[in-house]
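Notebook B, p. 112. Complex prediction, attempt 2.
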Amino acid sequence: MHAKDMPAMRQPDDKEVTAPMILVIASGKGGTGKTTISTNLAFVLDDAQFIDCDVEEPNAHLFLKPEIHAKKTVGLPVPMVDESRCTGCGECEKVCEFNAIIVIQKKVMIFPELCHGCGACEYFCPEKAISEKMRDIGIIEKGTSGGIDFIHGILNVGEPMAPPLIRAVKACIDPKRTVIIDAPPGTSCPVVETVKNADFCILVTEPTPFGLNDLKLAVEMVRKLAVPMGVVINSCTIGDNEVSKYCKEEGIPILMTFPWDRRIAEQYSAGRLVLQNLREYRENYMTLINNIKLEISRHETADCN
Amino acid sequence: MKQLTVISGKGGTGKTSIAAALSVLAQSSAIADCDVDAADLHLLLEPDTVDSGDFSGGMFARIDSSRCTRCGLCERLCRFDAIHDFTVDPISCEGCGFCARACPDEAIIMEPNHSGKWFISNTRAGTMAHARLGIAEENSGKLVTLVRKNAQNAAENENRELVITDGPPGIGCPVIASITGADFLLVVTEPTISGIHDLRRVVEVARHFNVPVLVCINKCDINPYNTSKIEEYCTENGIEVVGKMPHDPEVTRAMILRKTIVEHDCGHVTVEVNKMWERIQERLNA
């Protein structure tokens, strides 16, 4: 059955159902099932835009297998010195907070990997000896997979700076569509960049001490960004009850639980979508979507009051 | 002193479980938990903290509204979209200080960002350096460098011959900070399409920084075909597979009991980790 034909999607009174929204799937701890959940959600929605923001290790394309039809490189501006104009005054070194410029014996040395591209050196150079050139940090690829509009970023190997590439990937968001974003693991700058300005964040965790510890960190981060959230507990049949207890105490809704199922692990290992072969899980994903919508509308109502 | 860093590319392959087990087996190492934005090693090694301090990773800008004449120059200059309506969003601010230097009214103040806390602790496996990055903070690469330095100092003071580092997932800034200068990387992978994809990327990063790689295949029975693919890839690239562990629910039970997989009987997993440690020692001492 096609996703759009499912009864749960045809609630005429539910206007939010078709309203575009940006959903981020994040986790704190890696390997809890972010990519599994996000790719299968996209598959069930069928007409969503899918954005993989895990630019260090993008994996969603292995499951959605998009046909790539566009590719562009993403760069960061780095300074370039016109030696005929440079007097070696050292102002550029002084204004660089990132130690990306050192002036030795009136000669300017630039360390591009340290440069954040803020533009201060160019602005403050009294001789107008600095201009900027683009340094490639990664690529963005766009494609389609069925009805899904697919976009991902791939960070160059050896490149430390993921957030500027994530910003460039997020600039491709289509505001007229439902957007599903696969986030990188962790809780620091690349994740913050990804979750920022989303309508809703789904935190995927597992009921283990590591899962709980990292969930708590992720919850604090999402709260700081003021994005509404809910939790999906994956492999809920392993481990203990501490994650559910924590969610109850904190008033965080549990949107869905999935059991540990060796067949899911096997499908995943082979790069296959769960829903293509284990159709009994379709119902879970439909309920998950509805629970997300309920949560979003609950937050919108709360905001109005 | 030798340095062994455990990484994975893909998250959740078992880095921390294996790093903790190796540190218990080594019994003569200093330990560094460099996954500073989702640190978990302390949950298994139950550290007793003996020293700690604040980590300040950088600066962020604040606008003094009593001096601000609302000229809007700062908002135009900021490349990080961090200034709107004459206020700075500290989450977007990268601390470059461009706005503060350019402000004609000297209305922008740069303030230090207390973005984390570092710890040095005693554990049953040795001295451990770890940290906690502040919520939604950046500069995790700098904090990783500090944690590694703390572990190296501990190793030197105590005449330890090895530092075992639990690294972060990915290939970006904190990973680069965790692997530069290490003697060996142990890459923990799993026989999934994503695991293989991420293993290749992480091996490229290791090559880029000239660090030799050893590979361990976790949950190898989930997909025997992919396990053989990983072994083929490793052979072709002159990389030794030092360990292969099957999937076993006892591993999760060990975690819940706050024990490493060599302190709780996880059957084949425990046996294989012990064998792997012997192979790693041979490489380290070669």
